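From the pipeline queue, job 12 of 40. The input is one protein chain; the requested action is below.

Action: predict structure.
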Amino acid sequence: MHGSKLNQEATNTYSRSYSAKIIEDFFSRNKEISGQQIISLTPIKQVNFFVLKALFEEWQEEIKKFRSPYFDYKNDDVNQALKSFINTLSKHILIQKENFQPLLEKAVIATLELLNDPAKYYTQELSRTNAADKTRELKGISKYIKLHKALFDDLLIKLDKADNINLAIQQAVQEHSPSDSETEQIVDHFNGTLTLDVLEKQPEIDEILMPEPLDELGEDSRVNESSMIEDINDEFDPVDESQGEGASHSNVNQQYKEDIKTLNQRYEEKEKVKNLAAVHETKSMSDLKNNININQRYMFVNDLFEGNEKDYELAMDEVESCDSFDSSVELLVQNYAKKYAWDMNADEVKELLKVIFKRFR
């Protein structure tokens, strides 16, 4: 990842061609695409979520059209009515082919930038806003970031303490060790649809021109040097397609029970490893909330509870009072999973279950 430079022209061309293939395949079977279908449109999760991000940004521009000098938009009743309208409309996304293609192309370009040059991606992202609180602005897109999550979390911490934004971004990128398997998997997915070739070509050693010796007059001979070319908010809560309208309560419970069984099996296997690290990892926690670090708390509140801190605190208190892991997960399923339309395969849900599991060891 470090040192990789995108060829912007090749990236734009690839984005158009890749998007065209995806769209042709999908719209040959569908007249429009819904929000739930966007989530599983491509095998690359980051592309799908960046489509939602692009959609949300377009929607923000649409909202501005509601503003008028003739009405009091600061009124509490007006704000509440507008928010209710936005929430309702955001759950009924329906886009036709010609309107969807620009969103997908934008998402593919953003994914390739984040994959190969995250410093450039985050610099551009933060430069788009004039807000003084850059950390808050970055947190606003957290639900859309699925690639290099560790880097994103570290960047949030550094921005909160940094005076120089660009320096904080560079430090975070330099200290981050990307997952080779994650990168290779995404590249493989892109190649599965269209061969990915968007990076600048680096010259071979024997192609690099060396200065010629000094001539008799002592003047340097001139050589040509080759230059390298350098480029929905909480309202859009994505829902797994398998949990669309009409999904039964029993189906949700069954999904969680299957995931809980897998989680139990995974940790039971780890318990067999008799070393100090394993013992520490599975150590019981007497106070659940105090053992959830700040990054985890932020992720749970925003990604699972839609920013509702009261519900999050209540849920953790209720889990703390449960007498077993199974009963605590059943409580979450009954009271929160359906309310917030959790995707039981999401990393955030599995991370929460992992923390709760350790609570009852």
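Job complete. The radius of gyration is 24 Å.
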